[in-house]
Amino acid sequence: MNPHRSLGAFWLLLSLGAALPLLVLAWRGLGDVAILPKVLDLAGVSLLLALAGSLLCLAVGGGLAWLAFRARLHPGWDALLLPAYLVPPFVGALGFLYALQLVGLQPYGVGGILLAWTAHYAPIAYLLLRPALESKLAPLLIASEVHGVTGWRRVRALLPPLFPALVAAFGALYLTLLGNFGVPAVLGLPAQVYTLPTLAYARLFSPASPDPLGEAAAIGLLLGLLAVPALLLSSQPSGEPSPRPLRPRLVWAARIGFALFALAAVAFPLVGLMRRALFNTFTGAFQPAFATALELPLVRQGLTNSVLQALLATGMLLLLGLLMAPQPAALRRLRQVLDLHYLLPGTLLALGLILLLAPTPLYATPWILLLAYLLNFAALMLRAMEAGLEAGIERLVEVGRLFGLRRRQAWWKIGFPLMRPYLAAGVFLVLPLCLAELTLSAMLYAPGSETLGVAVLSALNGGLFREAAAIGLMLMALSLLLLWVPRRGVV
Predict the structure, then answer these.
(1) Quick check: pTM over 0.85?
(2) Which of 154, 216, 299, 441 has a Cα-to-Cα distance from 197 of 20 to 30 A?
C-alpha cells in the first residue's frame, strides 16, 4: 500500500473523529430547525454584539499596541495588561457589576456586556497586533521618516501591510465573543438580553421545553452558521516582537494609556468585588464572606474540581506537545485538525459531546468535562510548540545530529531545553482558560463535578451576592498566580 495514501487516510479519519461531536450536533439540530424562525431576533442580537465587541476590542487593543510600538515600550509594561486577560471574563463582569453599583449605575444589558468584553479581550487584540506592528510597520516607518512622508500619506503607506493582521485579529475576537457565555449570563440574563449561547443553555435545562436537547442543538447549529464565515479570518499571527532602531515617540502617552487601562479593566472591578466580599451590604461593617462561601459544599467541591481539572488538562496537553515536538509536520497537521474546536464556540462542542456520549458511561462524569477541555484547548498548546519550532529550534536539533547525536539525544540535549520558554507560554495560555472556563462547565457538569464558575452562577441565582464576590476573588487570585510563570510572547 502506498505510504502517502495510508497517511492521508489516517489524517482523514482523525479529522472526522475530531469533528464527530459537531457532525452529530448538526444532524440533531436539523431535526428541530422549525424553532429557528422564533430565535432569529436573538441571533441578530448575538451577531451585532459580537461585531460591536470585536471592533471595540480591536480599537482599544490596537491603540495600545500602536502606542507601545511608537514609544518602544519594554515588554515589562505588558504586565499592566495581562491581569485583565487572566481574570476570568465572568469574574470581571461580576466586578464591574458591583463597582458600577457603588456609583449608582446598573450595568445590566448591552452596555455592560460590551464593557466587560472590552476590558477582558482588548489585551488579546494587543498581543495579536504588537508583533505584526514590529514586523510589518517598523521598516516602513523608518523609510517614511527618512523620506519625510507625514500625515495622510504616511497612513496610506502604513495601513495596507497591517490589514491582514487586523482582519485576522478581528476574526479571532469575533469567534471568541460570539461563543462567550459567562459575561452575557452575568450581565445579560437579569435584563433579559439573551445571546445564542445563553439561549441554548436555557433551552437545554428548560423543564417546559418538549425537546430540550433538540432545541438546544438547533440553536447551536445556528450559532455555528454565524461562526463559519469568520473561520476564514481567524488565522492568528505568531512570533515575538523584533525591536528595530526606531526613535521613541509618545512615551508618556503610552505609559498613561497602559496605566489607565489597568485601572479601568482590573483595579475598578477589583474594588467592586472587594467591597461586596469584605463589607456587609447593609451595615457597612467589615465582615468578609470568604468563610461563609467556603462553608457551601458546592464552593468547596468547585474549588477542588477547578484546580484538578485545570492542572490535569494542562499537564496532559503539555505531554502531548512534548511528544509531538520532534514531529513538526505531524504536530502542525494535528493542530489544524483540532483548531476547529478552539475556534468555534464552546457551546457547539458541549452540545455535541452530550449528544455523542449520553449513551456511554462517560456522560455525567468529570471525564466528559476533561475531554471537552482537552479538545477545546489542545490547539493553543500546539500553537505554542509551533512557534518554538518556527523560531529555529528544529534547525538547531538537526545541527546536533550533524555532530553525531542520535535524533532522540539531539532533542533531549538541545531541542527540549530550548523549548522550555514555549512550553511555559503554552501553560500560560491554557491554564487560566481552563480555570476560567464556564461554557463547557455549565453544560457538562454533573453533581459532584461542579467548577468554581458553576458555583458563582449558582450563588448569583440563589441571591448569595457577597458569597459570589468572594468566590470571584478566589478565582481571580488563582488566575493571577500565573503572572509568575516565566514565558515568552507567544500567542
Answers:
(1) yes
(2) 299
